[in-house]
Amino acid sequence: MTLSGFVSFILEVLFLPLYLGPVPFPITALAAGLWNVVLILTALNVTRQLRLLALPVVGWLVGFVIAIMRGPGGDVVLPAQWQTLLMLVVGVAPAGLVLYWLAVRHTPH
After folding, report:
1. Residue 39: closest CA among 86, 4, 90, 89
2. Average pLDDT in the 60-78 region?
3. Which pLDDT tens digit goes with each residue over 33-51?
4. Cα separation of 93 and 35, whole Å?
5. CA–CA separation, 19 vs 40, rounded Å?
6. Under 8 Å between Cβ of 91 and 38
7. How much is the mean pLDDT over the chain?
8. CA-CA distances (angstroms) from residue 101 to 35, 41, 62, 105, 108?
9. Where are the alpha helices (H) located in the chain, listed in sequence order?
10. What total number of domains does the chain contain?
11. CA atoms within 13 A on the CB side of 70
12. Taking a C-beta distance cutoff of 8 angstroms, is the pair 66, 13 a contact?
């Protein structure tokens, strides 16, 4: 599942600079949030441990960190633009909310 999160990030970052005419259209940022939630819900079929359920998001975040780092030639896959921030927030927030909801729901009272 961790590898699935990493691979999904790679596919999402490829289409992040998509434009509709002259207007940026970062639809993959929305897809990232939805897909990370789907990966968590799919992982529920394998385990109920919250640590393991978070692994797809961890894989996604590892890809994000790698993409914002400078390469040997000084190039960056994800430059400091609003689309990058949008992808981070929309990619992680829904998955974080689902993980929080699962943690609260399964906490003994």
Report:
1. 4
2. 90
3. 999 999 999 999 998 888 8
4. 12
5. 29
6. no
7. 90
8. 17, 12, 23, 6, 13
9. 2-14, 27-43, 50-53, 55-68, 82-105
10. 1
11. 3
12. no
Token digits of residue 54:
């978070």
User: What is the C-alpha to C-alpha distance for residues 90 and 84, in angstroms, rounded to an integer?
Assistant: 10
Residues 77, 13: contact at Cβ < 8 Å? yes
Backbone angles phi, psi at 26, to 5 degrees: -80, 65
- Write out the residue range of the structural domain in which residue 25 sits: 2-105
Rounded Cα distance between 91 and 24, Å, is 18
What mean pLDDT is predicted for residues 50-57?
Answer: 92
Question: φ, ψ for residue 32 (rounded to 5)?
Answer: -60, -45
